[in-house]
Specification:
alpha+beta, about 20% helix, six-stranded mixed sheet, 4 helices
Length: about 240
């Protein structure tokens, strides 16, 4: 009787646990409670380049700010710490075909027509009717053919916000920016840096990547998918030491 009760109690617990797990799987996911937004970006405080503080003199009953060039403020990035948008639109294609062919044939023949007057003695001493002319001969030939082709096509359309990190003596601006997007367990990272002219910034505070000098654009990722596509260490070592 005791064993029957124990088995029945265990079966009831398993049934309740299975129902609870099934209810949790069917139930819709709940929203995360609201928390401090600063924890989303991490606990470390953000440190970015900032412009030098400017002291402005205020005039009483004046509509114009001291040093202003227009009534409306220019919203384009121009100072250290300002943010602008970079539009990246790359559509490159290249096709190269190379073909090479080379052949060479050479022949060398040396003979001994007079060996200090001893050629007759040597011929009589040797069996048969040997001849010392020619005595040495070389023949060689070589040929090589090579073909190579490159067919590359790239299309990249991205948008990223960059920060002005420095202002050069001639007025040009140094920008830099990064962007990370994580989907499931795959992280995509976009990096950009370069030098721009303030007059190349459009009225909507954007600039094309073609107007960035010394542009460095990197777009890649890391995660589960990238790890699967990457060769294993053993194969990399084998490729380095394989003689063929």
């Amino acid at each position: 009787m005791k064993k029957t009760l124990t088995f029945g109690a265990g079966l009831a617990v398993l049934t309740l646990g299975g129902c609870a797990g099934l209810d949790a799987a069917i139930a819709s996911p709940q929203l995360t409670p609201i928390s401090n937004p600063a924890t989303v970006a991490g606990s470390q405080r953000v440190s970015m380049p900032l412009p030098a503080p400017e002291m402005e003199t205020q005039a009483s009953n004046a509509l114009w700010r001291t040093g202003a060039r227009s009534f409306f403020n220019d919203q384009r990035a121009a100072k250290i710490g300002d943010i602008l948008t970079v539009n990246i639109s790359i559509q490159d294609s290249a096709q190269v075909n190379n073909s090479t062919a080379r052949s060479r044939t050479s022949s060398t023949e040396d003979g001994i027509s007079a060996l200090l007057g001893l050629e007759g003695v040597i011929q009589n001493a040797l069996p048969g009717t040997p001849s010392l002319d020619p005595a040495i001969g070389f023949d060689s030939s070589s040929a090589s053919n090579g073909q190579g082709s490159v067919n590359r096509q790239e299309t990249v359309n991205l948008t990223i916000a960059a920060v002005i990190t420095d202002r050069l003596p001639n007025g040009n601006l140094v920008i830099g920016g990064s962007q990370e997007v994580k989907i499931n367990n795959e992280l995509r990272e976009l990096l950009i840096s370069g030098v721009i002219r303030p007059e190349d910034v459009a009225s909507d505070n954007t600039i094309a990547h073609t107007k960035i000098a010394e542009a460095r654009i990197s777009y890649g990722g890391r995660g589960d998918i990238s790890n699967v596509q990457r060769d294993r260490y053993g194969k990399l070592v084998y490729d380095q030491i394989a003689p063929f």
